[in-house]
Amino acid sequence: MADNLDGNGLSLSGEWDAFNATAPHDADIGARRYWEVTTRAAHTPGAGIGGAWFTSTVDYGPYGLRGRVRDTKGKKSARPVYVDDATVYPHRHLVHVPADTKGALIASEVMGRSRVYRRLLEAFAIWFDQRHAGATLEWSVMADDEFREEFLDAASLLAVTVKQQVSVPGYSDANGSGDTVVARVTTKIEPAGWGERFPGKWIKPLLEGDTTPQAAFALDFEPVEVVIVLAKGQKRTIHLDAGGDPLLLYPLGAPRRRDRPSADEFFGDAQATLVRLAQTLAS
Fold this sequence. Notes:
five-stranded antiparallel sheet; four-stranded antiparallel sheet; 28% strand
């Protein structure tokens, strides 16, 4: 393998392959979501592109509800769906471990509002930490500068939600304890007119700290949490206090396409994106 995390041959790409080889799966009871790694393979990126590359497919979908599956053309009778049945769809992933680095990049296929990569990466991080004492594996979302700037330059600011911490005095009557309770007041700020937007030019100053929510929205208090909602084709929510960039989806082909991209199209576009991101990391 190309990577060497600890100077003694520990390979992140080897760990990833070993993790996927165990065919991990999990059922999140709270979210009623099931996922399972079904296939994995090495990926050949082409001449002149180094590092380790892997593909994997994860079946992901909801479970926990009874129902029926109907044939939309009426040629087959309805089939029951039981509580333990999961309605899953295959989500493709491409992983790249650049040479001479201590990290990796993953491109994940997204269908609708699915976020299967979170389940996969959270499970991998736990698995990795348990196998290697003193090691911690962390992950975050990325976007190359050009795509990020294009999104932010054209995005609209839909709404802002701020949270203020206050003290609510206690009362001795109405079964009150008489103690002061710390509480949070949530305020949502959005244009009053239908279809109106806040100026998009406010977005970068807010993200980069050149202005404050108090100054931008005439607040007379310092919020403990600020969330902004942006939109440009895809709607994105950003927690300003958490830092970082919005999670951006790279569209494949025409907007709102009805067909699923072929394997060649998906892995080709994913590879090109990961190569660009790897160059960003190296610079």
